[in-house]
Amino acid sequence: RSKTPKLGPSNCCGEQASTSMVVLSAALCTKNGKVLLSRQFIEVSRIRIEGLLSAFPKLLQHGKEHTFIESETVRYVYQPIEELLLLLVTNKQSNIVEDLEVLRLMARIVPEFCGDMTEAQVQDKAFDLVFAFDEVLGMGNRDSVSLPQIRTALEMDSNEERLQKMILESKIAEANKVAQQRAKEIEQQNVARSKAGSMSGGSSLAQGFGNAFNEATQQAPSVPSVTTAAPERRVAPKKGKGLSLGGKAKKTDSLMKALAEEGEISQPHPGGAAAHTNAQPASASGAQASFSMQQEAVHAVVQEVITATYSRDGMVDDCEIRGDLLLTVNSDNAGFAALQIEQGNNKLFQFKTHPNIDKPAFNKNKILQGRDPTRPFPTGAQLGILKWRSTSASDLIPLTLSCWPSPASDSCVVTLEYELQSEQSGSISNLIVSIPVSGQPKILSCAGDCRYDAGVGCLEWTVDTVDQDSSSGSLEFQTPPMDVDSFFPIEVYYEAEHPCAGVRVLSATSSQDGASLPLSTAVDVKSQGSSME
Asked: Beta strand 530-532 with 490-496: parallel, antiparallel or unpaired?
């Protein structure tokens, strides 16, 4: 962990005292006090932590609804989860409001990984829970993470590893197919030889019956002798081709295509010029992705990540836009490529080129080329040659979101509305809004589709496309009476058609002779970590 709390002198408990929030331990136990799982976040002895956990059931007063209990040295913050208790042991200087936020997040994590809240299930998923708790707290201090971020971190999924495994399996299958074909051809050759031998033997027996019959029998083996030689000439190239590395290009392309259709990968896998040249579009919806389109000798990808924090009335409180221009040279003849770009409204953005890029050419003519005229770009490698960033371009955020909870005595009605704010980013696709809701809500109206996930306690609102013809939409649902703060934070994800910075690649030429080079481009703009607090 990069964050280390400032520790003061030791208190009477043996832990280090701190003016900030410090969580000593997070535990899952039964209502009888049996500890199923305990994770310590600071240095504390086992005897001490066992004493603190064993003292908790004695302090717990049944029949009274409280969320915390204080002893002489520590504070217990707890929450019942079915037949179990989720418990945080903190120092008394800890901020109880943040403790409750941590407890609420952990209460969502435990059902996510355990499913049925039984002792056996908790013990079976103990390591997964410990790893998830470590993502929430570092050295006893809270980390700013959400449940989807924790889920992504613990999946530890690698598209490249999956792709390599599929390529290896395809090579094994291809080798087995060649081996079977070769065995079949050898068997046919053996059968042909046996037939030729029997016919030769017949002709030798017929020699005593005259020269005419002898000549006829000697001509008979000539037919199978030709048929046995022909398969050998056909097999020779197949044996070398089936086991060569060059034979996997079509297999690799089909695997990339399958992964692209499933949405598993979002970046091109550097497979050299041959792989890029033979790549075919995976689907019409993914035509902008670099891995699912025909790549030319020079391929450029404009990537941009939008992170925004919305207020409940629809204003953008905080934002950050980060972008990259990635270059892939797929031909040795295009190693000295120079890209002519357009920046758009660059007053709100800070641009920075790679150290090996000619900065004067970029600042004066908006041309991205190598600084050393004798050093070409490497072939088949994806290189980041330009970056940009802005924290003040809130007006360029493509989408705004507002939330209007209306609590009543017998119910609570929540209305959410999205609106297309900036025309510069074009249309919005794959809009996903995740609202934490405890219990199945009643949907009153919905633009798009919505689905309730009881496992994580989340209502997921999805809209396929947001454009000028349908620039706004709303969702309205009803729940039993509850605190309006329980509907937050709301997480937002979407993909935009154009980058907010207005960066475009116009053309590609050779920096040596100015000749035009074949160019293909792709755009990948999406929100990441956007939420409404």
From this structure: antiparallel
Task: Return phi, psi of residue 141, to 5°.
Answer: -110, 150
Q: How far lies 449's CA from each of 239, 310, 461, 532, in Å?
A: 54, 22, 6, 20
Q: Is 67 helix (H, G, I), strand (E, B) or coil?
A: coil
pLDDT tens by residue, 295-345: 899 999 999 999 999 998 888 888 999 999 999 999 888 889 999 998 876
In angstroms, the first-to-last Cα distance of the chain is: 25
Q: What is the pLDDT of residue 199?
A: 56
DSSP codes joined into one string, 431-490 = EEEEEE-SSPPEEEEESSEEEEETTTTEEEEEEEEE-STT-EEEEEEEESS--GGGG-PE
pLDDT tens, position by position, 235-247: 334 434 443 444 4
Q: Can you give the length of the chain in residues?
A: 533
pLDDT tens digit sequence for 124-160: 888 888 888 888 887 777 777 787 887 777 777 677 7
pLDDT (tens digit, 9 = 90+) per residue, 277-300?
333 333 334 434 444 578 899 999
| Rounded Cα gap, residues 493 and 418, in angstroms | 12
Q: How far apart are CA 354 and CA 367, in angstroms?
A: 13
Tell me which residue of 227, 190, 147 sits closest to 436, measured CA to CA: 147
Report which of 365, 347, 367 is spatially closest to residue 357, judged by C-alpha positions: 367
pTM: 0.47
Cα dist. 144→129, 153, 529 in Å? 18, 14, 11
- Determine contact, residues 317/309, Cβ cutoff 8 Å: yes
d(CA 261, CA 493): 20
Cα–Cα distance between 245 and 481 in angstroms, integer?
64
Residue 38, sorted as left (phi over 0), alpha (psi -120 to 50) or beta, turns out to be: beta
